Amino acid sequence: MKVRERLEPFADGATHWMRTSSANDSTVIRVAELFAGVGGFRLGLERADSATFRTIFSSQWEPGVKRQYASEIYCRRFGSEGHSNANITTYPTDAIPDHDLLVGGFPCQDYSVAKTLSQSAGIVGQKGVLWWDIHRILSEKGPHKAKYLFLENVDRLLKSPAKQRGRDFAIMLASLSDLGYAVEWRVINAADYGMPQRRRRVFFFAYHTSTDLYKRLSSTESKHEWIVSQGVLADSLPCVLKSSRALFPEHLDGDLAFLTNEFNRDNYNAQPFANAGVMIEREYFSADVMPCYRGPVTVLRDIIEPDELVPDEFFIDEVQLPQWEYLKGTKTIERVSKANGHSYMYSEGSMAFPDSLDKPGRTIITGEGGSTPSRFKHVIQTDSGRFRRLTPIELERMNMFPDNHTAGIPDIKRAFLMGNALVVGIVTRVGLSLLKEVSKSYAQ
User: Fold this and answer.
1) Alpha-carbon distance 355 to 378, whole Å?
2) CB-based contact 76:51 (threshold 8 Å)
3) Which residues pair with 123 in a beta bridge?
4) CA 88, CA 99: separation in Å to the nearest integer?
5) pLDDT band at residue 177, thresholds of 50, 70 and 90?
6) Are 105 and 28 found together in one domain?
7) Are 397 and 301 in contact (CB under 8 A)?
8) Is 300 a domain residue?
9) What is the pLDDT of residues 197-227, one digit of tens each?
10) Which residues constitute the domain of residue 291?
11) Is 292 noted as a catalytic residue in this protein?
């Protein structure tokens, strides 16, 4: 497959590198992007190969707000064709075109199941509504369901809820197995692979029984070898085994309601899922792995704008500087419990102040924007000696988005959208690995 790169301009001057190929329609991978935000999955896949990965449906809806900033940006960048700004929970499955790859970063909630009804189809009593909409779409698509799933969430998903650690992830694995999928997962810190942000998220990649990937995994004796060398995530984000939990599989027994009530109930301090693993036919193998990367590294210094291009409002004046220093420093504060009125001492350690320019940035949070002093916002000291916050363009660069991808809305909203986004480079790496797997299938 012949591949070339080009610089693709947006109408307002923002730019975006894309890879294109001479792929014909037989190798097109039709993509549906749920919980799309401002299009991080789409950007990453298009950078892998914009001719092969074609997004034919996208959905983005933010509850409780009048103006849908993320959907607005998405349409501005990619066009409104095939895009929905409706609540996905009310969106009919038959209105979603058939697709090969379903992607999305769904919100982390409570995924428990109250009960199952033998007398009717489906699962009821769900609290993690958005996960169950993914489940609904896969179920209702029937034989036309996606061949591949590529999903992202916060890494605490593997440990939630606190009193039944791992239960939520167990429910998700079991439900995907029941729908005919094998799943591999990995907790990935983007900075471990040279990317400009220390952002830890769990990614999981699933493939249907109809795919060659599923058949290969099924016939592979050492599932731990799959985790570190043979799987899609291992190929795209190399790692080495740190420790395996067991050479033998654990099994997810019972229906989803049973897992809700019983999984890890009597040993809730144990952590059943390591930072990497694979599951097939409800058997899962789990392993602790370490990244194995020796390529180039991008740090904050590489992505900051020169002072002369930064508006004055991003610089911190001398009057406010002590407040920033206080919030970033070690402190012990007396607080009063709202539940019972008892007072207690709350302590927190210091944070780097200013943030090091010679390291990747810390995780962007949704409250990154605005001039109000904060413990969690980035503050850098430039070569001029002045302290300042990061600009929207710098936040976009930390997530590996093109400059000015979110331009046209208030800066504080641009920061919020980047706090909700993912690091695009991870998606590109996984997309390239999937292309290799698909090419193998067509070559056979």
Assistant:
1) 6
2) no
3) 116
4) 16
5) very high
6) yes
7) no
8) no
9) 999 999 999 999 999 999 999 999 889 899 9
10) 3-295+423-443
11) no
The answer to whether the beta carbons of residues 275 and 192 sit under 8 Å apart is no
Regarding whether 113 and 215 lie in a shared domain, the answer is yes
The residue from 75, 108, 239, 292 that is catalytic is 108
Predicted confidence (pLDDT) per residue in 45-69, tens digit: 999 999 999 999 999 999 889 999 9
Can you tell me the mean pLDDT for 232-241? Answer: 96
The DSSP symbol for 390 reads P
Burial class from Cβ neighbours inside 10 Å (0-12, 13-18, 19+) for residue 372 reads exposed
Shared-domain flag, residues 316 and 225:
no
CA distances from 390 to 265, 291, 311, 345, 356 (A): 44, 28, 11, 32, 13
Residue 42: name the closest of 52, 29, 53, 51 by CA: 53
Question: Rounded CA gap, 71 and 75, in Å?
Answer: 6
Amino acid at 414: R
Q: What is the DSSP string of 391-421?
A: PHHHHHHHTTPPTTTTTTS-HHHHHHHHHH-
Assess whether 180 and 314 both reside in one domain: no
Q: Please tell me whether residues 275 and 323 are part of one structural domain.
A: no
What is the full DSSP assignment across 268-327? TTS----SEEEEETTEEEEEEEEE---S----HHHHPPPGGGS-GGGBPPTTTHHHHHHH
Cα–Cα distance between 258 and 262 in angstroms, integer? 6
pLDDT of residue 336: 85
Tokens of 59: 């959905």
